[in-house]
């Protein structure tokens, strides 16, 4: 599997730096969706972003279009389905709950990616995966706790979005290691646009602009920043890093989103939400590090103690 391929450390470093930019762009996307939904319905927001985003990417990298063959189309269809579900759930969830909540729920793909990798490749789940999933579930509970034991539609859709994005990341890692990253991104976004056109025409009334200028600005940001730039960074970086390493950096989008939600939308950050964030970040740290740093520290303390006893 690609997770275990040797990685060029220098290239991986530059890829990680680019991923921080992608995380910031995706963090701002949550705010943009809130503003875009004031003028357009959820499905049509994604129709605009993927149709125009695909056109812009294809125009910039038009030479890459010639590379798209049957193998690209097959991969793009699978990627488009997972992308369609993920963005549909995330956009609709914004109607029902806050930016901070959705941002952190979507960020749980950092836990789902390694967990699903274990399932897909039929490997026995190690202890740190099981503990990480438990911590993540606890984090989701505290993050979404509103005085009762019920989950709202926003929280359910947020988790659905995280799972869909996890499949998308695992699939994309497989394809970009074998195909041209930019070409597969153009094909994926193009097929995603087609899926949204069909869904929007069947399920929602035709869009009618209500004069909200801020919604147009938000939509433009989603198209150029969160779709064209972020998707290209995500795809190209997977050639130089692994899916698990990528998602831990991209999970910073939830931090950017929460901070922007606090400053721009005046959304409150409660003690329960902070506790949920701590649980989720604990799960991420556990799965990514396996607590090796803690074991090394304990071993170092024990070794130093034994040396003192010998003296």
How would you describe what is shown here?
This protein is an all-alpha fold and 311 residues long. Helices cover 77% and strands 0% of the residues. The longest helix is centred in the first third of the chain and has 28 residues, at 9-36.
Keywords:
single chain, 311 residues, mainly alpha, 77% helix, globular, disordered N terminus
Low-confidence stretches: 1-5
Helix content: over 70%
Q: What spatial form do the alpha-carbon principal axes imply?
A: globular
Task: Please describe the biggest sheet, giving its number of strands, its sense, and whether it closes into a barrel.
Answer: none
Summarize the structure.
It is built from 13 helices and no strands. The chain is an all-alpha fold and 311 residues long.
Secondary-structure blueprint:
Layout: H1 9-36, H2 42-60, H3 70-93, H4 99-106, H5 109-120, H6 127-144, H7 153-176, H8 181-203, H9 213-237, H10 243-250, H11 253-264, H12 271-289, H13 292-310
Helix pairs in contact: 1-9, 1-11, 2-3, 2-8, 2-9, 3-7, 3-8, 4-7, 4-11, 5-6, 5-7, 5-10, 6-12, 8-9
């Amino acid at each position: 599997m690609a997770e275990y391929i040797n990685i060029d450390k220098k290239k991986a470093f530059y890829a990680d730096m680019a991923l921080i930019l992608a995380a910031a762009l995706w963090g701002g996307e949550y705010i943009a969706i809130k503003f875009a939904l004031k003028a357009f319905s959820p499905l049509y927001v994604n129709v605009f972003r993927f149709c125009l985003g695909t056109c812009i990417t294809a125009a910039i990298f038009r030479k890459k279009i010639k590379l798209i063959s049957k193998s690209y189309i097959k991969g793009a269809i699978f990627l488009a389905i997972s992308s369609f579900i993920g963005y549909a759930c995330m956009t609709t969830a914004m109607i029902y709950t806050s930016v901070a909540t959705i941002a952190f729920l979507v960020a749980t793909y950092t836990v789902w990616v390694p967990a699903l990798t274990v399932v897909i490749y039929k490997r026995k789940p190690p202890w740190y995966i099981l503990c990480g999933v438990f911590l993540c579930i606890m984090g989701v509970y505290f993050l979404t706790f509103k005085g009762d034991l019920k989950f709202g539609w926003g929280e359910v859709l947020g988790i659905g979005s995280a799972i869909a994005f996890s499949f998308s990341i695992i699939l994309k890692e497989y394809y970009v290691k074998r195909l041209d990253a930019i070409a597969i991104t153009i094909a994926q976004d193009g097929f995603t646009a087609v899926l949204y056109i069909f869904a929007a025409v069947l399920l929602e009334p035709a869009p009618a602009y209500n004069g909200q200028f801020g919604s147009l600005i938000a939509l433009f940001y989603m198209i150029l920043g969160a779709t064209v730039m972020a998707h290209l960074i995500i795809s190209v970086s997977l050639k130089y890093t692994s899916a698990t390493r990528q998602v831990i950096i991209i999970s910073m989008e939830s931090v950017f989103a929460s901070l922007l939600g606090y400053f721009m939308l005046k959304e409150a950050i409660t003690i329960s939400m902070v506790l949920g964030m701590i649980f989720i970040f604990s799960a991420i740290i556990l799965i990514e590090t396996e607590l090796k740093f803690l074991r090394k520290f304990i071993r170092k303390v024990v070794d130093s103690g034994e040396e003192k006893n010998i003296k």
